[in-house]
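Ticket opened by: R.M.
Priority: normal
Category: complex prediction / small molecule

The reporter submitted a protein together with zinc ion and asked that the result be attached to this ticket for the collaborator who will pick it up next week. Submitted input follows.
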Amino acid sequence: MSLTIYNTLTRRKEAFTPLDPANVRLYVCGPTVYDCAHIGNARPVIVFDVLFRLLRYVYGPDHVTYVRNITDVDDKINARAAKDYPELPLNEAIRKVTEKTEAQFRDDMRALGAVDPTVEPRATEHIGQMCAMIDRLIAKGSAYVAEGHVLFSVSSMSDYGKFSGRSLDEMLAGARVEVAPFKHDPMDFVLWKPSKPGEPSWPSPGGIETPGRPGWHIECSAMSAAHLGEVFDIHGGGIDLVFPHHENEIAQSRCAHGTDLMAQVWMHNGFLQVEGEKMSKSLGNFVTVQELLTGWQGYAWPGEALRLNMLRTHYRQPLDWTRVSLDEAHKTLWDWYGDVEAHEPASEAPAAIVEALSDDLNTPKVIAELHKLHGARQFAELRVALSFLGFSASRANIERASLEGGEAAERGKVDELIAARLEARKAKDFAEADRIRDELEAMGIVLMDAKDPETGELTTKWEVAR
Ligand code: AMP
Ligand code: ZN
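Result attached by the on-call engineer:
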C-alpha cells in the first residue's frame, strides 16, 4: 500500500517516501497562545492528527515524530497580557496569559479526539537555537544587522518567492511588511527585533548590544531543526501560512543549513468558513471550541461530533461550518455507536479505510466506507475503523446535552436580550424593558434583578422556569 500526498511545493499529488522509515518526521505550526482556539484553528489539528494516526499505522507507532510548536512570544500576546492584567508586571502577565491559553488549547484539542503530538516545543525555550541560526545566516551573508534588528536578505536567495509562486508585487501586498528605512530591500523580513523596556527580551545575536526578541518565522525554523533535523519529511499548516510564514521558514532554514529543501512535503489545509468567509478572530465571525463544547445554538456538542463534521470535507477544500451539518454528524455517530458498542472491534482496520486515507487523506471517501460497513452490518469492522480515526464508539461519550430549558434557553440569545433590557432601563424606556422581560418569560426564562452592593449598578441574573 502506498501513501500519496498533495505537495504544495511541487503542486501535485506524489507518492510519499520517508527519508528514514524508522523515524518519519512531521512538523505542524501550532497556536500563538494569546486567545482560545476557534473551530477554524482546530482544523489543522484534526487533519494532521488523522495523518499522524495513519503514519503510525503504516510505519509503526514508535517510528513517527510529530512536532507541533507553541508560539509563546508574540506582539499579540504582549498586548493581551497588558489588557487582561494591567496591575501585573508585563512579564508576569504574559506568563499568565500563555499558561492559561496553552492549557485550554490542550484540553480543547483532546476533547476533539486529537492525540498529543510527540513534542510540543515552546518558542521561549529555543531562543538559543534561534540566535545561533541567526548568527549563521549573518555569517553566510543571508542576513544583516540594522538598528537593533536582524533582517533576512531576500536578494541572497535566488529562488525566494518560488514556493508560494507569487510575484514581487503580490508578495509585498501579502506580507504587509513594514517599509522601514533601514531595510536593504522592502521584502527583507525580521529575524530579530529590539524589545521595548518591560517587554520580554533576551540577549541579542549579531553582536547587537541591546536585548531583543525573535520574529515569528525564525521560531519554526529553529524548533523544527532542533527536534527533527535540518531536512525532514512533512511540514503542515493552514493555507494562510504559505505566504509569508512558510516561504520565510524555507528561506531561513535552507540558507542557514545550505540545503535544497527544508521539508520534502508541504501540506496545507483549506479554510473553515462561515457563509463563504474565512473564520477568523479579526472578522469576528468565529465560534470557539469551548463555546461549541459548552453551548452553541442550544446544545453542548460532543467533541466527536465536531471531529466527524470536520472530516466530512476533504482537508484541501473549504469547509462551511453549519449547524445543519453538525447535527447530521452527531446523528450519524449516534446511529453507528448504538449498533457497534456491543461488539468487540475486529483486529485490523478495514483495508478500504486505510486505502482511502492513503489517497491524500480522502476522509469523505472514508466516511462513505463507514456508512457502507454500517449498512452491511459489519459492526466489528466499523468499530475498529472508528477507533482508528479517533472515535470512541461509545454513546455515553456523545450525549448531546441540551442546555436547560431546551432550545429556548439558547444562552447567547438570552444574554443579548438581558443586555438590551438593561440598556432600555438605563434609558428609562420601561415599556421596552418590560416587553423584553415578557419575551424572555415566553422563552421560559425568569429574571432576577439585583443591585451590585458595591457599585450600585443594576445587574440581572436568570434561571430557567421550573
Ligand atoms: P493562527 O492562530 O491564526 O496563527 O492560526 C493557527 C492555525 O490555524 C494555523 O495553522 C492557521 O492556518 C489555522 N487557521 C486559522 N484560521 C483558520 C480557518 N478559518 N480555517 C482553517 N485553518 C485556520
Ligand atoms: Zn511555523
